[in-house]
Amino acid sequence: MVRIGLFLGFLLVPILEIWILIRVGSVIGGWETVALLIADSILGAWLVRREGRRAWAAVRATIESGRMPDRELADGAMIVAGGALLLAPGFLTDVFGFFMILPFTRPIARRWLSWFFGRRVRSLAARSPYAPLFDRTAGFDEGAGFGGAGGFGGAARSGGPAGAGRGRVVHGEVIDDD
């Protein structure tokens, strides 16, 4: 299914790009269309550079504060992907590229991509031969993120620590050999 989607994407996107370029060129003229594509590329390169620097500064600040830079890394990945889309000549890919780069549309793109990849991971996990080994409450819950309302592992639903009520608890002590 993924291969068919990629095949259609690589087939249809260039055809749509050429059709849009011809339509825009017939309305505003050929040289003006080329000038618009060049201006679009210059603006995109400047924007990728600016937002890339901001994303890198945000990653460094988050790491220095001791937190995991998940959102910042996702933003950086979207900026790279958006820059790659801006490299392709055409207006359709530029629209998607700008959508992933602009700071006020990036949160929307991040939510859509998170939804898409979360759905894909759940689908792959359900088809895994190891799927019966895992409890559904301990995984990704669509409504509340990873682990449900209790965060990681679903502790709020079970009333105790993650994994409470799912088996025997062995209490122990950690001894450091130093």
What this model shows, in words?
- Helix 1 crosses helix 2, helix 2 runs parallel beside helix 4 and helix 3 runs antiparallel to helix 4 (91-101).
- 66% of the residues lie in helices and 2% in strands.
- It has 178 residues and is mostly helical.
- The radius of gyration is 23 Å and the shape is flat.
- The protein has a domain at 11-129.
How far apart lie the N and C ends?
A: 54 Å
Order of helices and strands: HHHHHEEH
Largest sheet: 2 strands, antiparallel
Overall body shape: flat
The amount of helix comes to 55-70%
**What Rg, in angstroms, do the CA atoms define?**
23 Å
Mean pLDDT: 81
Unreliable segments (pLDDT under 50, ≥5 consecutive)? Answer: 139-160
Based on secondary structure, the structural category is: mainly alpha
Strand order in the largest sheet: 1-2
> Total strand count, please?
2
Give the amount of beta strand, in percent. Answer: under 5%
**What is the tally of helical segments?**
6
Name the quaternary structure. Answer: single chain
Question: What features would you highlight for this structure?
Answer:
single chain, mainly alpha, 6 helices, 2 strands
Which helices and strands, and how do they pair?
Elements lengths: L1 H27 L1 H35 L5 H18 L3 H11 L4 H22 L12 E2 L3 E2 L8 H4 L20
Helix pairs in contact: 1-2, 2-3, 2-4, 3-4
What's the short version?
By secondary structure, the chain is mainly α. The chain is built from six helices and two strands; from the N terminus they run H-H-H-H-H-E-E-H. Strands 1-2 form a two-stranded antiparallel ribbon.
